[in-house]
Amino acid sequence: MTRNKFLSFVAICLFTLLGCDSKQVLDTYKTLPNQWHKDSVVKINFKAPDSVNPYNLFVNVRNNHEYPFNNLFLIVKMNFPNGKIVADTLEYKMAKPDGTLLGTGFSDIKENKLWYKENVIFNESGTYQVSIQQAMRQNGEENGLVNLKGVTDVGFRIEYPEIPQ
């Protein structure tokens, strides 16, 4: 095997091994324009994986150096197939006190996997919808921030929970 073929083979093996995500059931993103408007709701529809097993749910957020806050407030709603809606107002830490963004990534875009719900059993068959809306405001301001800078993508993830060893 030539050196180039060997290096290509090793690269493909590493990509395959590192790219595997055995816990993932669903992982999807919606790209936002330059700013996240307060009335722009990210909606993600999905079918229940099954009605027996528990799953962990996450909100995924990609942000860049233009993100001006150290936290993020979101309103997340889960619409069930039978019409029931569960709404949560959630707060997540997005930066260290010195302003260094949290999350993973080597570039100026950081990816944050934020806990939403744990051990959820989808006991209704049909289509579910998750709606995600930013609910940021400046300190001391009553009205919410109209446009939030620095958030590039918002997503939703369903995972199998950790299996105890």
Task: Describe this structure as you would to a colleague.
This is Gliding motility lipoprotein GldH. It holds the Pfam family GldH_lipo. Keywords: Lipoprotein. The protein is mainly beta and 165 residues long. It has a single domain (22-159), classed as Sandwich (Jelly Rolls), CATH 2.60.120.380. Helices cover 10% and strands 47% of the residues. It has one helix and ten strands; from the N terminus they run H-E-E-E-E-E-E-E-E-E-E. It has one helix spanning 3-19, and strands at 24-31, 35-37, 42-47, 54-63, 71-79, 85-93, 110-121, 127-134, 147-149, 151-159.
What structural category arises from helix and sheet content?
mainly beta
Q: Overall 3D geometry?
A: globular
Terminal Cα span: 40 Å
Number of helices: 1
Low-confidence stretches: 4-19
Mean pLDDT over the residues: 87
What is the name of the CATH topology?
Answer: Jelly Rolls
The neighbouring-strand order within the major sheet is 1-10-4-7
Helix content: 10-25%
When the domains are counted, the total is 1
Quote the beta fraction.
over 45%
Give the strand tally.
10
CATH architecture: Sandwich
Pfam families: GldH_lipo
InterPro entries: Motility-assoc_lipoprot_GldH
Protein name: Gliding motility lipoprotein GldH
Keywords: Lipoprotein
Describe the structure concisely:
InterPro entries: Motility-assoc_lipoprot_GldH (IPR020018). The protein has one domain (22-159): Jelly Rolls, CATH 2.60.120.380.
